[in-house]
Structures are given as structure tokens and as C-alpha cells.
Amino acid sequence: MQCANHTDAAAAAYCSNCGKALCSDCISPDKSPVLCAECGQERETRQASAPPPIPPPVNPSPVRGIAAPTLPATSGYAYCPPGVSLLLGFIPGVGSICNGDYFKAFLQVLVFGSLVSLSSSSETGDLGPVFGILTAAVYLYMPFDAYHVAKKRTLALQGITVITPLEKMKFPELWAGSLSILVGGIFLVNQFVPGTLRFVLRGWPLILIGIGVYNLTRHFRPQLS
Predict the structure, then answer these.
(1) Do you find a cis peptide bond into 33, omega within 30 degrees of 0?
(2) What are phi and psi of 33, to 5 degrees?
(3) Is 4 strand, coil or helix?
(4) CA distance 23 to 113
(5) What is the largest CA-CA distance in the chain?
(6) What angle do CA 80, 82, 88 make, to 5 degrees?
(7) pLDDT tens across 104-159, in order?
(8) Per residue of the chain (225 residues), what is the pLDDT tens digit?
(9) Could you give the count of Cα atoms lying within 13 Å of 191 in the half-sphere of its Cβ?
(10) Cβ neighbours of 90 (radius 10 Å)
(11) Do residues 39 and 21 make contact, with C-beta atoms less than 8 angstroms apart?
């Protein structure tokens, strides 16, 4: 195959971008990858117009009396500031969407909608007010969570790592998955067997008994060992 630029010369290589045949005179041995003149010029133009890389954040100086260095401005921050996340958090799921937590937003909308439905359902019986209180608690939790997540990410840009109050509450994935399957199964069975949900809710004191047994077991376990 002949060179695309010099038809009387045999091709020695090919442009790694467009595949054009190039002879030995069109190739720079000290440049990698192999590019034709047009692709090489396009690459240089693209590199010249690219923004400079953002320097890493500088940790504040731990020495007392020495001012901390000014942190570089970070462009392109994809999330909302804490105040905006707090305000949008009063709309179910929107605060988490603002923070980029789309799966958490989906769960918040699902849980909030389920509690609203249960608080006004006749299946819950006398427990309707309890679900109303839980609905209000979840509604107030969402902006609180959105604010803390946004605040943590803002501090992370300054090199400061914090743990939010909700992160201190460890909830294993096994328990979360098992609880989701259990609640979803109860709702599914209730669609085909009316009254299942009311029957299950009558046993809510078993939750208190289970919590008591769990704490007593943790208390006496060190003594038995």
C-alpha cells in the first residue's frame, strides 16, 4: 500500500486515529502514538484548549499561630450546597437527588408514600395515628439527611473528613435486605388475602419483646463467657 501523502513511497505505518497510510518521511520516530499531520494538529489544539488540572486540596496547618493556606477554587462541583439541599429536602426525594443519591431518593419516596398510605388505610385500625407520626418523622428526616450529606461533601473538598450522625447508626445490609423482603411480602400477600396486614399489625408488641430479648442477651453474654 502506498503513502497517502507521497504516492511514490510505500506505507510504513498507519495513523492510529484515522488509519491513513504513512511513509517513513511522514512519521516522527520520537512521537507516540503515530498520527498523520491533520490528526496531530487536531490533538495539539485540543490539548491547548483543555482546562488546567485542578490541584488537590491542601489540609489546614495543624500548627497553632500559622494561618492555613488558601484552598484552590474547585470548578465543576456537581452537587448542591448544604442550604439548597436542606430546602429541597422538604420535597420527598429531591434533596437526595440534588446530592446525587438517586437510589436513596427512590427509597425515600417509596417509604414516605407507603407510610402516607398506611396512615390513611382502614387496614391499620387503631395504629393509624402511629403511622401518621412515623410519616411526619420521615418527612423531617429527609431534609436533615440531605443537609448533612451536602455538608460532608463540602468539607471533603477542603480536606476535612467528618462522620455524619446517621453514619454512626450501623445497619447491616443483611438486616436491611431481610426487612425489605419481609415488608414487601406482607404487602403482596395482603393484595390477595385481605386482612393479612391487619393481622400482622396486631402483633406489633412482638417488636418490643424482640428488642428487649436482644438487649438482655447482649447484657448477659459477657457474664456467661
Answers:
(1) yes
(2) -80, 175
(3) coil
(4) 68
(5) 94
(6) 70
(7) 889 889 889 888 888 887 777 777 788 889 889 989 989 988 898 888 888 877 77
(8) 677 788 777 777 767 776 677 787 877 766 667 778 887 787 778 777 766 666 655 555 555 555 555 544 444 444 688 889 999 999 999 998 988 888 888 988 988 988 888 888 777 777 778 888 988 998 998 998 889 888 888 887 777 777 765 566 655 566 667 777 887 887 788 778 887 777 777 777 787 888 888 888 888 877 665
(9) 5
(10) 13
(11) no
* Angle at 199 (CA atoms; ends 116, 139), nearest 5 degrees: 20
Tell me whether residue 66 is exposed, middle or buried, using C-beta atoms within 10 angstroms of its C-beta: 0 to 12, 13 to 18, 19 or more: exposed
AA letter at 201: L
Annotate 39-84 with DSSP letters as a single string. HHHHHHHHHHHSPPPPPPPPPPP-STTSPPPPPPP-----S--HHH
The residue among 100, 99, 75 whose CA lies nearest residue 87 is 99
